[in-house]
Design goal:
single chain; 292 residues; alpha/beta; TIM Barrel; 8-stranded parallel sheet; two-stranded antiparallel ribbon; 10 strands; 42% helix; 14% strand; disordered N terminus
Amino acid sequence: MLNRLAIEQELTTTLNNGVQMPMRGFGVFQITDERQCHDAVIAALNAGVRLIDTAACYGNERAVGQAIKDSDLLRDEIFLVSKVWIQDTGYENTLRSFQKTLKNLGTDYLDLYLIHMPYGDYHGSWRAMENLVNEGLVRAIGVCNFLPDRLLDLMLTHDITPAVNQIEMHPFCQQKRLRELMADWDVRPMAWAPLAKGRNGIFENATLRAAASAHGVSVAQVILRWLYQEGAVAIPKSVHPERIKENFDIEGFSLDKDDMDVIRCLDLWKPLILDVPSLDEVKRLHDITFEQ
């Protein structure tokens, strides 16, 4: 058993600009009911989660902000993440969207601001986000779903290297080639859908169940610990307090080399949820509109 204090110190990471970020987070994608989202965020904060991930297009920034206000925590105790959507890319649009996000969340700064998709005028968005960093309104900036070509193009074109790339990452989609590039540039992976949304029988997978049995934990805890040991920040979503607490509780055990290697062999080398280069997917995502 690892020393608890040592593990707790491990469960943060230093981003490429020196900002400290928790390695365990909570995501609110598809929690559209305001009360349910509020209560889920409260449950996560009560469980010890200190990284909350939302986005303008999720339609729940206000609920997240209210939950933070209603918690017993100070704003600077929470690492708050949001994102700019495709329809708001470009320099001026991003600045306007950012101000709406601040208002919705009831805060005067973000810890991490991300470009949600590698579509639209994301170069203009990045210039705006660099200015937000320089003005002290955002502590770190990054991207989501950027594959190697567009990520490298962005990094070679601008002054600030993304601190984070939030990507589909779980045992069946490990993004190894992308993560090699990210490691070269010190870009931290953040795993959305870390439990693969339950797809491909992930909770019944024999390899994962064997590891869970060996360590006396759940399959979800094995996956989230594996992601942590792979260097990825995970943002699992749930609306059930007991599962939220379980997903956060990965500090009491460690996976050995054999565990890590056998889980690496589960990679299918393709996404299960979001095929970013697919023309149908590009059109579908461009068609998504919302009101902040």
